[in-house]
Amino acid sequence: MTLAPAQLLPQSQDADTLARIAIIGRGFTGLMTAIALLKAVHRPFHLVMFDPYPKIDGGESIGRPASGLLNSRVRDLSVDPAARDDFRHWLEANDGWRDRDQAVPGNVDHAFVPGEVFSAYAYQRFSEALRERADVMVQVRAESVAAIGRHSRGGLSVLSGEGDQARFDAVFLATGYGLREIAEGNAGPTGAREVQVIGGGVHAVDRALRLLAAGEASHVTLISASGFLPQPHAPSAVGAVSSDRPFPNTLRGAFRHLREAANRAALEGTGWQGIMNDFRLRARELWQGLTPEERRRFKRHVKPIYDSHRNRLPLGHYERLRRAIDSGAITVRKGKIERIATNGVLLSGAGGLQVLPADRTIDCRVRPTDLDSPLFRSLLSAQLARRDELDLGILVDGDGRVFSQTGAFEGLFAMGPLGLGSLPDIDLVPQIVVQAHAAADALGAWLAETASSKAAESRTR
Ligand SMILES: Cc1cc2nc3c(=O)[nH]c(=O)nc-3n(C[C@H](O)[C@H](O)[C@H](O)COP(=O)(O)OP(=O)(O)OC[C@H]3O[C@@H](n4cnc5c(N)ncnc54)[C@H](O)[C@@H]3O)c2cc1C
User: Fold this and answer.
1) How far is the CA of 386 from the centre of ligand 1 (A)?
2) What is the DSSP letter of 365?
3) Domain residue spans in the chain?
4) How buried is residue 130: exposed, middle or buried, by Cβ count under 10 Å (0-12/13-18/19+)?
5) Which domain of life is it from (predicted)?
6) Nearest CA to ligand 1 atom 15
7) Domain at 194-230+328-363: CATH code
8) In this predicted model, what pLDDT tens digit does every residue of 115-127 receive, in sequence order?
């Protein structure tokens, strides 16, 4: 799964004549963007992929063995939007999976697979797309990017953490949850008795269950800032279930509609998951119509509930979680972490500040985009990008295009979770796949337009 940079660099191309494209970040979003560019941009180009993390492996959250659980079903994980069953076909053709698959009851489409299996698939599709394009030069640089600005010769200037500066026609930001750490923080003693897991999402619950199953903890305190934990998936995949009533365009109206639809579904014995799936399909349109104040209210009061219903646990995991809570093996605490120390945390909750001692503390929170990092500070101070009003990331359109403060598109894209303030759900695999292909098409059209206006300009000179 690891590729040395030199293995990807064909020597036969003249780099100066090619369109130059950079992808910053080689997590799943960066890899997916590369696949889409290789498939959809039909002219030769030079692609440079920056990330200090030395491997290409399909992403931290997805590829890191410690992350374990992938909570999307096989049928939702194709990296090819035109072939929804591509991942299933890959699994069925894969010997290693077929052996494991004996353990999975039912239809493969409805199954959940470990993150490293999905990562191997995404990486294989990247290698295949690369092999198909002898006219594309790909260079992998194990460096961070410290700043982006405008280049004096036009286009964008990328400054690496090692001080090299290079010009690009287009740049895709795919920095997700920030720089990846190779070590996993406070590992603590093995066989620790009391372990704290910080986070209320799928990753935190999965980690807590695995600690107990492996005997690495005798008791886990799961610390969720909102007090919410993920809800369960339905036993098998359900589609979107829509209501015949008109969909409201205010936050209050939308949630009343959601509550009523879920109550009806409960009475009829159908689950709420189909209702939520329909709501998610409409969320982008609803979001665009909300006022800034409504969006802030959503972030403050509704987002934790929304997240706990969209990022769901496979049913088996959910039942194990309930059993662990009922037996006292897991205790859930609600509160804000003020400080993490070697022997526990300082928690502020309803009862005020409290020290919670532990033998080991594991932080499983998803880090939001750090707009104060040097890279984002450089973009904002050059007025190449604008932050969204919730400070969740930067403003993008549906194709991931970033518009400067004057409203111009200058070749900059922000992909995946970086656009969470503009596009709800853009942190999930199916949405990232669609966005990557839309962005690649938009880039292809923009490069063609730029080239023809340059040609027209030189003819009139
Ligand atoms: C535990 C977990 C499980 C998940 N499971 C699912 C699932 O089942 N289904 C689903 O749809 N979604 C799932 N997701 C969500 C989805 O996988 C992620 O939103 C998506 O993978 C984000 O990937 P990314 O590449 O944008 O970010 P990241 O994985 O954070 O990768 C960002 C990369 O950018 C690099 N980088 C950062 N800053 C710089 C810089 N300045 N210069 C150069 N490089 C930089 C980092 O080193 C890193 O490698 C899961 C997420 C988590 C956390």
Assistant:
1) 22
2) P
3) 5-70+114-178+369-460, 194-230+328-363, 251-310
4) middle
5) Bacteria
6) 428
7) 3.50.50.60
8) 888 999 999 999 9
The tokens describing 213, both together, are 């199953």
CB neighbour list of residue 163: distance below 8 Å, 6 or more residues apart:
none
- Tell how far the Cα of 32 is from the centroid of ligand 1, in angstroms: 11
Beta partners for residue 24, in sequence order: 50, 173
Q: What is the per-residue pLDDT across 136-184, written as a single tens digit (0 to 9) for each?
A: 999 999 999 999 999 999 999 999 999 999 999 999 999 998 887 754 4
In CATH, what is the architecture of 5-70+114-178+369-460?
3-Layer(bba) Sandwich (3.50)
* Strands of 174-265, DSSP E: 194-198, 219-224
**DSSP strand pairing (165-168 vs 156-160):** antiparallel
CATH fold match for the domains 5-70+114-178+369-460 and 194-230+328-363: yes
- For residue 253, the CA-to-ligand 1 centroid distance in Å is 33
